[in-house]
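A favour, since you know our structure tokens better than I do. What I am after is a single protein written out in full by you. Could you add the entry underneath, on a fresh line?


***
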Amino acid sequence: MVNAIEVEKLRKEFKSYSSRAGLIGAFRDLFTRNYKIIRAVNDISFTVKQGEMVGYIGENGAGKSTTIKMLTGILTPTSGKVIVNGMIPHKEREAFVRTIGVVFGQRSQLWWDIAVQESFRLLKKVYRVSDRDYKEHMEHVIDTLDIGPLLDKPVRKLSLGQRMRCELAAALIHNPPLLFLDEPTIGLDVLVKLKIRKFLKEINEKYNTTILLTTHDISDIEALCERVIMLDEGKIIYDGSLQRLKANWGEGKQLQFTFANEIRLDALYALTNGLPVKWRKGEQANAWVAHVSPSLVPEVISRVVSGYDIQDMNINEISTEEIIRNIYEEGVVHG
């Protein structure tokens, strides 16, 4: 199977300048600047096969956006190899951009003051898409994303959900084999998210489109991606299937207790002393969540119920979001 993306020992460094204090410091800064090298992406290697849908995740500052910018040719790597669709992105810009679609949740590729369909027509010319190809492909896209009624409206009149659906359509005018999505569902309501996810699955199945998705919304990853690449401080700490991630770190149950009165964390740890239980604050008032192995569930419930007044209690499987949070907290590195 052909690789859509090949990355080998990819690194990106930035110079960070610091100012010295006081008037004398400012004067010195005129002649010499203090700086340190920050390694945003630190010798990462991975490949993505044509037709794969991969979640690229990490906390803010982990290096996700810097990687995407190198893969799309916006940034030049400090060192290492990057080949996307058989080309070096920053060197073969003009030919390369015709083979990718990009949707950045925070940035628009549509013209603000003109009707959506005028933006589409301009992009059609930019990408040199024939009338026949445009009609054949875009009718399906417009219909599936339900943006027909929006085509005559200027972009500035659209809601965020409407604009994001139009952005996605704009990125697909030239039917690229590879789609980069950076936070495509940020700030969108549930129904719009579902529509976008369904559409992405369809184009992946119909055209074998490769999709690299960065998002903070773990439910996007669960709905679309079988594989995740997890980044922390510029390094890959996990690259593998979502199922394996759950199997390796998803063992156990979450017990959520809502107490009748306020309770302190140290009191809970005293109550479960001697047991490997991890407590954290719940979202509601007086709610606490215990992370325990299945065999300890009865013992933990028995100790808590006999020690304090309980208003409510739930037993849940550990969510993917929780698993990922635990991996970051523990700094677990797995290939």
